[in-house]
Amino acid sequence: MVESNDRARARWAGIWYLVTFATSIPALALEKPFLDGDPAASVAAAQFGCVLEVILAVSCVGTAIALYPIIRRHSDARARGFIASRTVEATLVVMGVVAVLALVTVRDDPGTPSGVDAALVALHDGAFLLGPGLLPAVNALLLAPVLYANRLVPRAIPALGIIGAPLLLASATATILGLVSQVSTIGALAAAPIALWELALGIWLTARGVREHSEASASTPVAVS
Fold first, then answer.
1. pLDDT of 4 above 80
2. C-alpha angle with apex 222: 217 to 223, nearest 5 degrees?
3. Is residue 197 part of a domain?
């Protein structure tokens, strides 16, 4: 019963991971022209991007809830930390959505004080930097070592997360310090391993789930602090 429940939970987690991919990239593409102040930008497109980001936020929390019972057996602290980190990430995503929706209203009001437009764009950019731009590294540092140590999925998958997390942390920190721009080639390269880790994990969990208990009994489970 535990095995079948774990497989079902893992598959739900995989589906949620794939939903994050299906929503995050299109959402950014739909919102960016509007945020950049392009006169030809579609307000409706930006609003649809906001809808996708709300789905993204729900999916972030969904991955953590689905994996929590599985990860808790190996590290309660990391399981709780993963829930917290994903929830904070989702909160920051929603904060960015609020900024975009407020910007839609502000740009329709000719009486809006100067500076409000720029402040809302800055709020969105800051929420994006700290949420999808930084916290996936924290998520990987919490989750990937447990998956790797206990061989719950093929080790090559969490290895991507373990390698990619420091790169993304360094890139996000450099952006916060103003050393690189938020959208840059360096940033894209630094984010690539984490993106691959989440995509590969989503595909594997959806297709195969986690290693069965009977397989795990062949080796001693490793508690990861």
1. no
2. 130
3. yes
